[in-house]
């Protein structure tokens, strides 16, 4: 929903025309929402102050027809208050070596989480395409490969009583432990927003 991309071109074109040109050539499931000029040094990843991810899920006996590509359905009960307590544990600086999948080299597995919560969202619109559902919302200074999906899978196991809050807190350290939960399916995950500290790099809302 809020991915940021930098491109360099050997031509001058108004930003509004560039948006139209790109959308005319991209597949329909990729849309450019806006374009702005940045300075030469701007790097979308390196200059990000924070990123916000959402993971959407339901806990119903069965999923609705239109949700399957957008919201994960789990047909089991979860203690949402326990899951919310786990979210509070996540806030702060932790070593997430137990919550990422290898494949991309990183200098450090330490990340800082600024905000973390589970929200209940009402169904979207009078037509009821989407059911009432929950959003695992997390904001941090950076995220590792599949980190949010692994945290989501662990939160489900905490809600089901399979993982204690004490074991979860102990796993947020540099000592490797047995994986506490599955990698949640990809279709519930959304990158919502990237925030930049220096608005001279890119003027984002």
In short:
This protein is α+β, with helices and mostly antiparallel strands and 205 residues long. It has helices at 15-25, 80-90, 147-159, 165-171, and strands at residues 48-58, 72-73, 92-95, 110-121, 133-140, 189-196.
**Strands, total number:** 6
Choose one word for the global shape: globular
Uncertain residue ranges? 200-205
Q: State the share of residues found in helices, binned by percent.
A: 10-25%
Secondary-structure-derived class: alpha+beta
Q: Radius of gyration, rounded? A: 19 Å
The share of residues in extended strands comes to: 15-25%
Mean pLDDT: 91
Main sheet characteristics? 6 strands, mixed
List keywords for this structure.
six-stranded mixed β-sheet; alpha+beta; 205 residues; 4 helices; 22% strand; single chain
Plain-language structure description:
- The chain has helices spanning about 15-25, 80-90, 145-160, 165-170, and strands spanning about 50-60, 70-75, 90-95, 110-120, 135-140, 190-195.
- By secondary structure, the chain is of the alpha+beta class.
- Strands 1, 2, 3, 4, 5 and 6 form a 6-stranded mixed beta sheet that branches.
- The longest helix is centred in the C-terminal third of the chain and has 13 residues, at about 145-160.
- Residues about 200-205 have low confidence and may be disordered.
Task: Please give the structural blueprint.
Elements: H1 15-25, E1 48-58, E2 72-73, H2 80-90, E3 92-95, E4 110-121, E5 133-140, H3 147-159, H4 165-171, E6 189-196
Parallel strand pairs: 1-2
Antiparallel strand pairs: 1-5, 1-6, 3-4, 4-5
